[in-house]
Amino acid sequence: MGLKQSSMYLILFFLLAGFASSFTHISNGAFESHGTTGRNLLQAKKACSEDFEHKNYTILTSKCKGPLYPTKGCCDALKEFACPFADKLNDLTTDCASTMFSYINLYGKYPPGLFANMCREGKEGLECPEQTASGLTITKPSLLILTSGFLVLLFQLF
C-alpha cells in the first residue's frame, strides 16, 4: 500500500509541475523602442544573429493590410512570423527586435507602432505555442501531462 501511495504523490507532483509550466512568449519589451538615451558606451547592443533582411514577410503582408489593419489578422500573422524567433527577440542585449520591426515596416509599409499598440495578450506579451524538434506545435502542454498522468494513475490502480 505504501508503494501505491508514494506513486500517487509522485504523479501528483508531476501533474502540478506540468500546470506550472508556461508558454513561450514574446515580451512586451520587444515591441518598445529602446533608443539611445544618455551615455551608454558599455551598453551597446550586439548585432542580431538572425538575418531578418532576407526573411519571407508575405505571411504579414498578405494577412495584415491597410487601411483598416484588422487586429486578429495582423496579430495572428505577427505571431506566425515572429514566434519562431521569440528567444532572440526577447534578448534585450541584441538589436533583433528593432531590426525585425524595421524590416516589417519597410516591406509592409505599416505605420510606426502598429503592432505594439494592437497586439497585446497580457503582461508577458504575445503567447507563442511551443515548438518541438519535429516541428509539431504543442499548444496545451498541461493537457498532455494531465492525460499521461491520468493514464499512469489508471494503470497503477488496475
TrEMBL record:
Alphabetized InterPro entries for the sequence: LLG1-like (IPR058888), LORELEI-like (IPR039307)
Keywords carried by this UniProt record: Signal
Superkingdom, natural source: Eukaryota
GPI-anchored protein LLG1-like domain boundaries: 51-126
Residues making up the signal peptide according to the UniProt record: 1-22
Name of this chain's protein: GPI-anchored protein LLG2-like
Gene: LOC111298491
